[in-house]
Design brief:
The structure holds 2 protein chains of 2 kinds. By secondary structure, chain A is α+β, with helices and mostly antiparallel strands. Chain A folds into 3 domains: 66-103, no CATH class; 127-216, Roll (Pdz3 Domain), CATH 2.30.42; 220-449, Alpha-Beta Complex (2-enoyl-CoA Hydratase, Chain A, domain 1). Chain A is built from 12 helices and 22 strands. Chain B is globular, with a radius of gyration of 27 Å. In chain B, helix 2 (34-48) runs antiparallel to helix 7 (195-206) and helix 11 runs parallel beside helix 12. The chains are: A alpha+beta, B alpha+beta.
Chain lengths: 465, 480
Amino acid sequence: MRRFLTVLIALTIIGAGFVGGFAQEDLAAGPRTPYAALVSLRMIPAKLALLLRPASARAQGDKSLEPVATYFEVMNTIRGDYYGAPPSSTKLTYTAIRGMLKTLNDPYTSFWTPKEYKDQMAETAGNFVGIGAKLDITRDKKVVIVEPIENSPAIKKGVLPGDIIVKVDNKPILGLTLEQVVQRIRGEEGTPVRLTLMRKGHDKFIELSIVRAVVLSPIIEYRMVDEQAGIGYIALQGFNEQADQQFAQALKKLEARGMRALVFDLRNNPGGLLNVAQDIASRFIHEGPLVWVQERNGNKTSLDVEPDKHQSRLEKDQYPVVVLVNGYSASASEIVAGALKDYNIGTLVGTTTFGKGLVQTIIPLPDSSAVKITTQHYFTPKMNDINKKVDETGKTISGGIKPDFVVELTDKDVEAMRNASRDNPSDLNASAAFDPQLKKGVEVLKEKLAGGAQAPPAEGRVTQR
Amino acid sequence: MTRRRMGTFASITAVGLATGFAWAAGSRLNAGLPERLLDRSTTRIAQASGDGANPGRLRRVAQRPQVSDDDVGLTPLDTFLQVYQLVKQNYVDRLPDDRKMTHGAIRAMLADLNDPNSRFLEPAEREALDNEARGRYAGIGAPVSILARKRDGHTEHKIVIVAPLPGSPAEKAGLRPGDVVTHVDGKWVLGSDPFVAANRVLQRVKARDADEEDLQKAVEAAQQRVRGGMTLVQAQKKLTTGQDAKHTLTVQRAGVKDPVKVEVTTAVTEVAPLVARTLPGGVGYIKLNVLTEKSAAAFKQALADLPRQPGLVLDLRGNPGGLLQPAVEIGAQLTRGGNLFVEMGPQNKRRAVTTPVAQNRATRPIVVLVDRGTAALAEALAASLRDKGVGTLLGGRTFGDAMVQTLYALPDGSAYTLTTGKLLSPGGTSWHGAGLTPQLAVAGSTPEDQVLTRAVSVLKNRANVAAAARGRASADAARR
């Protein structure tokens, strides 16, 4: 359930970031030179005689601007003439690149500094060095283990959900922020960290020495939602390098528990790697194109099903699948949902997806920064363009994938789910009872298992609950 | 697919479908990484707030950071070049033209300085500046200044009327020097980033001192403010460009509790460089409206036509400044030359602005009338005349702006300005921020004929003039 809350924050911040960015530019770049201006007209020094033809030294009447020479000249003027402390040429350059890319008006084409690129790659890789436990901080400032990650050093040493961390390496952590505590627990691979824990029902503190190791952070949540009916549930939170592997394992475990139908939850899944989307979709579909991609030259090529992914019963037995989607299911999620829909393999339940039909390519640069460029449009197997189109007022005209069964999730539902999981944190299915989209998915699957397929409602009709 | 290889497009590393940076991070919130997402966003908001802004306006900057080997600009140049080429070759849609992309790059670099006076100018904006240099003002006909102030660790800007020019819509509407424009057409002028407050709530949410709902509320409040407001740029554009547009301004006026509302219709105001006449008693009077390209020649002519004795009343009240060159030339005409101003540049290097010394030139005593609307180069001229012992300042404290902007022209008609220095009086006095205190104080409410009578009587007692000028200059120097 925490997922809904946190996603809420994430979205809010995206909005804030965008608007903030706008404000930044305008507030800072803003004002005209005051008064008829203390403007003394000076000549631009020609600094690039050897390197580049300076923009100012060009033939009279040449009114074009060459981006690279002009940027370099302005940067050096700022570095040389600015009265305040000028930013470093590296910082100015990164800023200039961002400013240049902004004129493309494409939110997905962007630049990453070396640090941002490194962080991003770590995220895409889906692993990190640590003890492998999710932490949270409570209102009364206790740092609590929410859940130790499978196969992690933490779980092997017997760390339990609900354990409260009192000391790290014998130093009390009272008053530290969650971030600071995480910082203390993190460290080099192979080195130990000593945790002092308080556990319910124990009089004494528990002392554990845990050796840090590479931990695969879970990108998947899975469980049986209805043991009796054999309905399993897998939620995928992103398409990173671990996603396909974890998905396969989850399938295997659920099938071992008698799964005969699957709810595949792609709600709030913002996407990830294209080849991972291809891998995962290949587990559902027998053969054929999964997605068509088109470059600037207009040529369309297909990414097809990878036959070697057919090891689970999912594809072989063709058991019923429901895909849960919402407005925050984007890009790679839409590729998978779109393919399952076009091949009539999955029934989509939820709300219309985000509508991002663009592919980005990440290109590293020699100084360890990187640029991410929108290089391709993509289309579903049936050549549907799902990319969001807006009119001048910013209103969405088309885009996204409309589910077979439209079921909204209201603020009240979210609140009820939040309360349910708060009251019963150990029961993963506690909030499910208040999740109308999941409930509808289970209902659809039950009918399918019973043999009678429920017909999707007429176009545009919202299912009543 | 290979990954993590260096190089150009030949070695593409990963094909990603992440919906933007924040989105991608958002997917991982559940995995215990919310801090990273929040941090990134925080940074963005912090930048937006203009934290650490106004390097050039109100504070002196000591040393430029040392330039390291990595920082000579060639590695960055290569990075920029590669990004440009990669985008050119691979972007999925048609690209904006080179000119637009260049403007974007320059605009961003200048915005990075967080200095409202260092900025990119579209061709139209540059043309407006060129017109002002010739004495043609569009909009309300009053130069405005953006003043920065640090508060709670972030910078707030306000837009201030420097001086309504003679015959301008601003003058007709009764606007006064120092009026702070808070609303234009009923919309807030956003002097600081409304998301600063939201960001603070975000920090509290992270520390579990506030709820997501609180954050939601704070963000909504900020969005509300953005929707109901306009940026400084937009406000400034409305005030200083165009004609025949009606605007309602709400201003905050010193000494007046309630906000003052005025209606003003924009127009092009042609400002004559000066007005000259002889005051009763045969004293010469020149009112310099503004320092434009025409000012120095007009001043020379006017000065020649006026009697030398007993002196000159030089009226710089409501003079918002202008160009450096006319200020230098007028200074040269009224003094024996030499060091007229000192310009402090990057790394606080001082450079004297001098004119040829003419020991034998007969100077005349001057009373310089100043007030809150005397700004920038008008202040510089006043300070110079005072320090050089030829002028006595009479009136009210001046505006207090000494920053020098340099305009750099680009071949496509656009341009950019950069704060390149700060002016000091020849005696080394800085008036930036505080303004100049006249030797002879006269309340702003004093009737005009009494002010002029006072000026004339001062001139008629020349000995007092010289003594007072010297005394005040040394007192000012001692104060700093």
